[in-house]
Amino acid sequence: MLRRILPLLFAVVFAASAQTEKYDGPVPPKPDLPYIKQADNLIPTEALEAKEEKGKKNATTYIIAGANSPARTPLAEPTFIIRVDKLNPDQLSLYKLESRNGQREIVFEPKHPPQAHRVDVTRLSGGLYKIEVDDTLDPGEYSLSPEGSNQVFCFQVF
After folding, report:
1. pTM to 2 decimals?
2. How far apart are CA 134 and CA 140, in angstroms?
3. How many angstroms separate the CA atoms of 145 and 104, rounded?
4. How far apart, in whole angstroms, are the C-alpha atoms of residue 134 and residue 137?
5. With CB atoms 3.0 to 4.6 Å apart as the test, which of 51, 53, 102, 153 could cross-link to 45 if both were Cys?
């Protein structure tokens, strides 16, 4: 019995240690706020609440004040660093926003929901995580948002 459990235990320990990455860069000063990492600088994303409006055909539009985010990056595949307290980084989704009439918005339709961009979440140490965008992002407005929440962390790729 011990011969069967011991290899399994080693595999679990190895898998857990492989998911943690060594990090010696800057640490975010505020918890639960993603920061864009650019060289040795951290740029805080714009933390807001999206206003929810129900529309026709069961569509829901989420509206964010302001046409553009002050958090900007030239990187088409940005990396984020986040120090978590209450937020679960594995539940963050990345969406492209549309700027219309001086505000940003995204429409969720039951038959045609917007496609989230792929992100990889890596635990660095303690409550510190790295979030990497897998896709190349076109210039525009974007938001990281926890699943089931109207909280948004906005940024702009230019």
Report:
1. 0.86
2. 17
3. 14
4. 9
5. 153
Taking only the tens place, the pLDDT of each residue in 109-156 is 989 999 999 999 999 998 999 999 999 999 999 999 999 999 999 999
Distance CA 87, CA 80 (A): 14
d(CA 119, CA 29): 23
Rounded Cα gap, residues 48 and 65, in angstroms: 8
Count how many residues are written for the chain.
158
Asked whether the beta carbons of 106 and 63 are under 8 A apart, the reply is no
CA–CA dist 34, 109 (Å, integer): 27
Q: With helix as H, strand as E and coil as C, how does the chain read?
A: CHHHHHHHHHHHHHHHHHCECCCCCCCCCCCCCCEEEECCEEEECEEEECEEEECHHHCEEEEEECCCCCCEECCCCCEEEEECCCCCHHHEEEEEEEEECCEEEEEECCCCCCCCECEEEEEEECCEEEEEECCCCCCEEEEEEECCCCEEEEEEEC
Q: What would the pLDDT profile of 79-106 be if each residue is shown by its tens digit?
A: 999 999 999 999 999 999 999 999 999 9
d(CA 100, CA 84): 32
- In which domain, by residue range, is 121 found? 2-157
